[in-house]
Amino acid sequence: MDLNGSIDFALNGSNLPKGCDGKTVEEINDVDDHGIDQRYTICRIINGSEKFPGLIKLIIKVLATELIPQALETSTKEQIIDDVLRLKYYLFLIAARASGDIPTTAHWIRTR
């Protein structure tokens, strides 16, 4: 991999993938066909924005509409409540890490 983020496929002997000519991700995906900037931060991908719901909301929707009703058939309500609370805390941690409210271990070590 070059310092600019592009991969030199000639070095490892593989063929260059179709549609890729050694450009960085930023050079390839900067603007879509309609001229709209498609760059998203990790925070926007995880937590969403006004135009994008975010992965956390999508996960909650799948849990509420599909997984919990299926689990009600085989598990007790107490077990499901425990599992949902555990998932809630994990999703909160992921959302807070993505937004920068809770620093990652690497960030904490660098700023210490």
Q: Tell me the strand percentage band.
A: under 5%
Question: Which class best fits the helix and strand makeup?
Answer: mainly alpha
The parts where pLDDT drops under 50 for at least 5 residues are 1-14, 16-20
The helix-strand sequence is HHHHH
What Rg is obtained from the alpha carbons, in whole angstroms? 20 Å
Care to count the β-strands? 0
What's the shape? flat
- Tally of helical segments: 5
How much helix is in the residues? 40-55%
Q: Quaternary state, please?
A: single chain
Q: Biggest β-sheet, characterized?
A: none
Straight-line N-to-C gap = 31 Å
The pLDDT mean sits at 78
Give the structure's gist in a few sentences.
The protein has helices spanning 25-29, 42-47, 55-74, 77-99, 105-111. By secondary structure, the protein is mainly α.
Structure explained in plain terms:
It holds the Pfam family GCS. GO terms for molecular function: glutamate-cysteine ligase activity. This protein has 112 residues and is mostly helical. The protein has a domain at 42-111. It has helices at residues 25-29, 42-47, 55-74, 77-99, 105-111. The longest helix has 23 residues, at 77-99. The two termini are 31 Å apart. The model is unreliable at 1-14 and 16-20 (pLDDT under 50).
Structural features:
disordered N terminus; 112 residues; flat; GCS
